[in-house]
Amino acid sequence: MTSHEIDYQIYGEEMQYVEIELDPQEAVVAEAGSFMMMDNGITMDTIFGDGSNQTQGVMGKLFSAGKRLLTGESLFMTVFLNQYHGKRKISFASPYPGKIVPIDLTEYGGRFICQKDAFLCAAKGVTLGIEFSRKLGRGLFGGEGFIMQKLEGDGMAFVHAGGTLARKELAQGEVLKVDTGCIVGFTQNVDYDIQFVGGIKNTIFGGEGLFYATLTGPGIVYIQSLPFSRLAGRVWAAAPQGGGKNRDEGSILGGIGNLLDGDNKF
Question: Which candidate, 258, 260, 190, places its Cα nearest to that of 223?
């Protein structure tokens, strides 16, 4: 299926959103919960899967939706279709601080592999599939499990990265070692594996986990500085625990300081 051709513009710095311009009868498919705003004349429809098998009957739709279940996503996605006689605009927002990455699949051989929760939206016609890990160690310890998400087609797709984004272009045989949670995605020719950190002190006291990912070129790799799992872990660690008491982080006076500044909770 040939993807719809869409124009876009990304706004913002830390909390970005992408504005997509749709010609009449053009459509964009989006992850549930990413919608921000749209012009009048655009209609919304909830579908099974990514919409790529909507003409193949019930089984095609169920197969498309089943692939999304394996990646941990919802059975349903939302299609936004411009039924107005002129151009209309629709916007989708990033779910947490970071960067929105535009991926032109025609520049990457029609396929891009990304982490399971990175997808934001895409031109209708882009297929969202699954990429199974063929290596046991990578699946068990690679941070992304045995299944990653695969974007295929000839249109534009948009993925989200947490924090600051790094784009690395690897030459043939060039190796990049990365924290397993910091991978956003990579092109199809990149070989992805995991490697043991090594050393008793590094393993026990390093605080960086037992494994890191090795990405071998040729190809392009996108790395994020703040994975959502890391952000959520820090927020959870700093949140009030046990009856609403906090850790008094950053306060010289601790609990006494809370009494003075009116922040004490009983």
Answer: 190
Tokens 């956003």 map to which residue? Answer: 184
Distances, alpha carbon 263 to alpha carbons 181, 244, 248, 252, in Å: 35, 12, 10, 14
User: Backbone dihedral region of 76: left (phi > 0), alpha (psi from -120 to 50 degrees) or beta?
Assistant: beta
Assess contact for 108 and 159: CB atoms under 8 A.
no
**In the beta sheet, which residues pair with residue 127?**
152
Average pLDDT over every residue of 12-18: 90
* Of 185, 123, 132, 183, residue with least CA distance to 154: 123
Q: In whole angstroms, what is the distance from residue 102 CA to residue 18 CA?
A: 9
Bridge-based pairing state of the strands 211-216 and 35-38? unpaired
CA dihedral 72, 177, 153, 28 (to 10 degrees): 60
Q: Is 142 within 8 Å of 86 (Cβ atoms)?
A: no
What's the pLDDT tens digit per position in 106-131? 999 999 999 878 899 999 989 888 87
- Is residue 89's pLDDT more than 70? yes
Tell me if residue 50 falls in helix, strand or coil: coil
Answer yes or no: is pLDDT of 258 > 60. Answer: no
- Nearest-angstrom CA–CA distance, 179 and 194: 10
Per-residue HEC secondary structure of 85-146 comes to CCCEEEEEECCCCEEEEEEEHHHHCCEEEECCCCEEEEECCCEEEEEECCCHHHHHHCCCCC
Contact assessment for residue 120 and residue 34, using Cβ atoms and an 8 Å cutoff: yes
3 state DSSP class of 234: helix
Q: Distance between CA 130 and CA 119 in Å, rounded?
A: 12
